[in-house]
Specification:
The protein is α+β, with helices and mostly antiparallel strands. Helix content is about 50%, strand content about 10%. The chain is built from 26 helices and 19 strands. The model is unreliable at about 435-445 (pLDDT under 50).
Length: about 700
Amino acid sequence: MNRLSQSASPYLLQHAENPVDWYPWGEEALAKAKAEDKPIFLSIGYAACHWCHVMAHESFEDEGTAAFMNEHFINVKVDREERPDIDSIYMQAVIAMTGSGGWPMSVFLAPDLKPFYSGTYFPPVRRYNMPAFKDILSGLANAWKNDRTEIVKVGEQIIGHLQHQNKNEKNDLLSLEHFDAIANAITTSYDWGFGGWGDAPKFPQAMVLEFLLQHVTLTKENTENTEKMLKLITHCLQAMSLGGMYDVVGGGFSRYSTDKFWRVPHFEKMLYDNALLVRAYLHAWQVTKEPAFKRIIEETLGFVMREMTHEQGGFYSSLDADSEGEEGKFYVWTLDEIREALKDESEFFEAAYGVSANGNWEGNTVLQRVLDDASLAARFKLDVETVPVKLAEAHSKLYTVRASRIRPGTDDKILTSWNGLMLAAFAEAARVINVESGSLLPHDEQKDINLQNEYYQVATRSAEFLLSALRPKGQLKRAWRDSTTTDAVFLEDYAALILGLLELYQTDFNNKWFTAAQELTDEMIEKFNDPNGGFFDTAHNSETLLIRPKDITDNATPSGNALACEALLKLAAFTDEGKYRDLAEQALKLVGDSALRYPLGFARWLSAAENAQRNTKQVAVIGEAGEENFERMLKVIRAEYRPGVVVAASTYPPSKDAPALLNERTLVNGKASAYVCEGFVCKQPTNDPEILIKQLSK
C-alpha cells in the first residue's frame, strides 16, 4: 500500500496498491521534489475513466516501470473531480504543448511546478504512433540531468502562455441581433444526417440544445426559424435517445459516442451529463409534448434514484465504463443472451434493435434502435400504441437478467457542483411532471403524482444533505465521502448549488432554500470575485498554484463563471438588488467575442446573456397554499416552458425572510393574486388565471 491508501477519493484508492510510490497532491510531495531536486510526474484522471484503468494496468502495476518512476521522479496522483483547479491549469498546458488533451493526463513538472513535457495515455511499448511510456521516462530522466536549460526554457514558455490565456478581455454585451445570428450559425453546423455536432467522438450538447430551445421560446414571432430549430432540437434528442449512448434497459446516458452515429458509447455514466440532459429533455417535452421525451426523463431520474443516490441524500459522481476488466461488458448483449431472456418475443426485439449473431461492436450488440414504432407495427401487424408497451416489457426482462451481472464500479464521492446540477433537475421535474399542459395524450395522473412526490422527496433530502454534510460549520466544501470532506471548494460548487436551491425554492416556496441561496451568493462574491470582472475559479485564500485559474469556457460541465452569472441574474430578479445584476453584467462582458467565434463552447453563457438582455420576468403569487385559485395560478405558470421567469409565492402576509419580490403584495378582492413585473414595470395584479396567461405571454 502506498500513501494513496489514506485518501477518501475512489480514484486515488484504485491506485493505492500500485508499486508506484504515489503521493497525493500536497506539501509533502512538493517539498520532497525540491529537497531531492527531482522532477514531478503528475498523473490526473478520474474513477470512471477507461484509459486511466488501461494505463494503470499496463504501466503503474508493472514492477519494472514503477521502480524506474520511484527512482527518478516524485509521482503525484490527482483526482480531477476533487481538484478541478489543478486539472484546469495543467490541461491548458497539455493542450498548448500537444494540441489536444484528455485523460489520463500525464504531465512532467519541475519542482517549481512548471510543466516541461506532457501527454495523455502512453502505451507500455511503442504503438498507435505513440512512444512507449518507459522510453519517455528514460528520456526525460536523462534530460533532467543533462539538459536542464532546455527544460527550464520550455517551462517558462508554457507559463507565459498560461498567463496570457488567463487574461480575459472585456467586450461589449451581446445584443439581441447577436443571439439570432449565433442560433442560426449553430443550426448551420448541425449534422442533419445523424444528429449532433461534429464527427467522432460525438458529445451530447445539452447546453447548446437548451440555448436553442430558450431562444426559440423567447422569439416565437420568427416562425420559419422557430420551426427549423424545434425540428433540430427534436431530431437531436431523438437521435441520442435511440442510439447506444442511452441505456434503454436501465435508463441514463453514457458519457459520449465513439462514432458519429450515436451507436457505440464510451460507457461510463457521469452524474453531470444526466443532470444536464434531463433538463434538456424536460424543457423539450414541455414545448413539444413528445411522450418519448417524458419517458426518457422518468427512466433517467429513475436510474439516478436507484443507482446514484446516497441513502442520506446527495448523488454519486459516476459509474465506471468497465466491469470485470472489460469496457462495456455490463451493457452489451449477444444474440443468444437476447433469445434466452426474451424467448418468443425475441424476434420482435431483434428487429427493433438490429440484433445479429455478429453484433455491432466487438462481436456483441450495443442496443440501438434501427426500426421506429410505425415500421415495427407494420412489420408485426400491431397497433402503433402496442409497440412501446412490448419494448418496455422486453427492457424489463433484460434488466432482470442484467442485474445478475457483475456491476461496474461506482465512484461514490459526492461533489457539490454536480449535485447542484442534479438537485435542479429533480426540483424542476417535481414541479412540472404532473402539469397536463392541455395535452390530449394518454395521461396517467396518479403515476405522475407519485413521481412528482418522489422527485420532490429526493430533491429536498439532497438539499438538506448538501447544506449540512457539505457545509460543516457553515463552510461549503467540494466533496464528501464516508463522512469526510475535502478542504477545497470552487466557484462552480457555490454557483451550481445556488441554482439548485433556487429551483427547489420555486417548487415548494420554502424560504429556507432561498435564504441559503442568498447567503451562498454573498459568500461566493466575497471569496471569488475578480475586480476586473467575473470570478476566479479558486477562493482568495486558496492554495497558490502556477496561476489562479479563471476558466470561462463551458466544457462537459458549465463554466463556474456562467453558472455564477446565471445565479446572480436570478437573485437580482428575486431581490431587486442592483449589485447582483451589475456583477452579472461585468461577467458577461468577458465572453462576447469568444461566444460569437465559438458558440458551442459558451452555450450556458449564451442562455444567461440572452435572459439578461430580454429582462427576467418576475412573478409574485400571494394566497393560501391549497386554496383553489392559488393552485390554479401556479399551474398556469408551470404549464409551459418559461425561460427567463422567476416565481416567488407566499401566504399573506409574506414572512420577513421571503424574497423581496413579495414585499407589499396583497390579495385582490380577498383572493389569491399574481403580480407580473418586467424591466422595473409591473402589470395590473390579477386573480384571473386567463389574464395571467396573457401577461406571461407578452
